[in-house]
Amino acid sequence: MRITFYGGVGGVTGSKHLVEIGNNRILLDCGFFQGHRREARELNSELPFDPALINAVILSHGHLDHCGALPLLLKRGYTGKIYASAATRDVAEWILKDAANIQKQDARYMNKHRIQGAELAKPLYRLSDIGQVIKRFVAVPYARELSGWFNLGPYAPGVQIKFYDAGHILGSSVVVLQAEEDGKQVRLAFTGDLGRSNTPLIPDPEFIKEEVPTLLLESTYGQREHQPVKEAVEELVRVVKRANETGGKIIVPSFALGRTQEIVYVLHKLTDEGRIPRIPIYVDSPLATHISDVFMEHPEDYDEESWKEFGRRGDLPLSFRNLDYIRTQEESKALNEIPGPFMVISASGMCEAGRILHHLANNVEDPKNTILITGFQAEHTLGRRLVEGEKSIRIFGKYYAVRAEVVVLNEFSAHADSSDLQNYAEQVNGLNRVFLIHGESSQAEGLKTNLLAKHPNWQITIPQRGDSFDI
After folding, report:
1. Strands of 24-28's sheet, edge to edge?
2. CA triple 201-202-207, angle to 5 deg
3. How far apart are CA 327 and CA 249, in angstroms?
4. Nearest to residue 236, comparing CAs of 410, 404, 409?
5. pLDDT tens for residues 86-110?
6. Strands, E assignment, 316-463
7. What residue segments make up the domains of the chain, in order of their start?
């Protein structure tokens, strides 16, 4: 078995891992690179392998950095299937449609401002390409719903998989892959993005039951410890009460998939309990609205806590009377004229694009307001600059003084922290080889040190883009 890492290493975006077993070439994830616009576009424009030679794609979950290059894969010659949970298929459809629209808008902007004689910018794929991608999906049930392995069939003969709930976002999966090679059974596991325990709405990560010698383990928070979620909830209560008293606005940059729904869930619960005033709350992201609809279509993937708190009384966890989902640009712009207090939750989560930029531009200079950061902010993003306390930020070519209070609540992160990651690895029976992926170098190195301190016999590698290893 040979593994080549083409993305999702040396950073947290562009997840692509090619596994070669016998005559089969299995691609784990096919994601977009995100970050500096020019660099990301260059990386996303080309695939570092021949798509026509791939037998099967296995998708861990529907975040853009894991699924965003799927349309390009098909356009470049891939003819096989895409294996994912049913919820991931539905989530990925909206994520890809949104990516196509953003590319269209970006191309229009670049062509409008291009230097005379420069080549016209073109989207990597269009909205019309997404339907063909969705037709290739094969829904794979979680292992808890199956009595055995799921066979990939004629596309990858002899290859079997199991999905365990990764507890990261709706439909996310830890993938266990099994096949025979040279008369021997080989097996590896891929966490995708691993979630936290004891968080609302999504179940806790499920542990792998099989013996697995090789694990591809994410390391986003490899050397960081999250505070308990209850502490983040207390800080959220403080922020909402402050806004209610000052008439301020709470601007929440949030990922449309996962984070938005989790925050809405917590706000619903706090409002029902009377712990926060019933201020207006707006979800201003068409994508988040569509994703919330997908959540409502897959209640079978909610955790037990959600059923106890809302299901028994016939309530919907992502809908309550002071919550509005904003659908049009006109409604979004109208929020600028409404006096506080209110909260607006808007994408993108790292403040790199979308409606959140307009809300920041209109509100970041008012000390009555709060910018509430609720998750990981990658290097070189506007969100990271806010977290690091910069006093002036640039939006649409104009500089704004940061006078609003900036509050960081990483406890709402959908990623496991260092202890969670180490514990998950330790629960894998027969483990002796670990590849640390999906993390900045400092986080991966920190996790490696912690793992080796307790398991000096494990072989732990931090691969870089393009590295190949024979297992």
Report:
1. 137-139, 82-84, 56-58, 24-28, 16-21, 2-7, 468-470
2. 150
3. 20
4. 409
5. 999 999 999 999 999 888 887 887 7
6. 323-326, 342-346, 370-373, 392-395, 398-401, 405-408, 433-437, 459-461
7. 2-224+414-470, 229-412
Nearest alpha-carbon partner for 74 in 82, 86, 84, 83:
82
Q: Which amino acid is at 2?
A: R
Rg (CA), the chain: 22
Sign of the torsion angle spanned by Cα atoms 301, 14, 219, 462: positive
Q: Measure the CA–CA gap between 257 and 62, rounded to whole angstroms.
A: 8
pLDDT at 313 over 60: no
CATH 3.20.20.70 fits 229-412, yes or no: no
Nearest to 290 by CA among 260, 314, 250, 265: 260
Angle at Cα 371 formed by Cα 370 and Cα 376, nearest 5°? 145
Buried b (16+ CB within 10 A) or exposed e, 296-316: eebeebbbebbeebbeeeeee
**Residues 193-234 pLDDT 10s:** 999 888 778 899 999 999 999 999 999 999 999 888 888 899
Strand partners for 325:
283
**At 275, is the secondary structure helix, strand, or coil?**
coil
Of 47-56, 140-149, 344-353, the least confident: 344-353
The CATH code that applies to domain 2-224+414-470 is 3.60.15.10
44: its two tokens: 């996303």
pTM, entire model: 0.88
Residue 240's alpha-carbon distances to 4, 237, 272, in angstroms, are 47, 5, 14
